[in-house]
Design a protein that fits this description.
Elements: E1 6-9, E2 26-30, E3 35-38, H1 57-79, E4 83-89, E5 92-97, E6 103-110, E7 112-117, H2 124-137, E8 147-150
Parallel strand pairs: 6-8
Antiparallel strand pairs: 1-2, 2-3, 4-7, 5-6
Helix pairs in contact: 1-2
């Protein structure tokens, strides 16, 4: 078993609190030492109480799924001796209400575009199979109930 950590730090300072007029900006510190500005989404908490230039939990969730899929895909491609020169994804997460009326991320759509080099690229069917296998083996996708779709984009290079 491996342990992965993140530290979240927020401070009220001299802001009001009970009236909900406080900043949601906070610090996210990862176990490797990287620090990222965090906030609630401006779609959920209006500016100036949220910060548009910070990562919100919904974005982080979508990014975690997209990054896990990519890392798994790269590993599988390397095992098949396929050379990946570039991988891009334009992932999106959709917030909705569940049957109980609570908000959740109902669907994450990954739209990876992979540029291959070396001896050649996989066929469309092989590429689809690689993405399917990456999804099946992705730790984060295996950890959530959210529907995760993968819609590979054709490479433009």
């Amino acid at each position: 078993m491996s342990l992965h950590t993140a530290e979240i730090v927020w401070s009220r300072d001299d802001q009001p609190f009970i009236d909900k007029r406080y900043s949601r900006r906070h610090l996210i510190r990862f176990d490797g030492g990287i620090e990222v500005a965090g906030s609630s989404s401006p779609h959920v908490v209006p500016l100036p109480y949220s910060a548009a230039d910070a990562v919100d939990p919904e974005e982080a969730f979508v990014a975690a799924l997209a990054a896990c899929h990519m890392l798994t895909f790269l590993q599988l491609a390397a095992l098949k001796r396929l050379v990946v020169d570039r991988y891009e994804d334009a992932a999106e997460g959709e917030l909705a209400r569940n049957a109980d009326g609570r908000m959740y991320i109902a669907r994450v759509t990954l739209r990876p575009s992979v540029h291959f080099g070396g001896e050649g690229a996989p066929t469309a069917a092989e590429l689809t199979a690689l993405h399917h296998a990456a999804h099946e083996q992705c730790f984060i996708a295996n950890s959530v109930l959210t529907e995760v779709r993968c819609e590979p984009r054709l490479s433009t290079e």
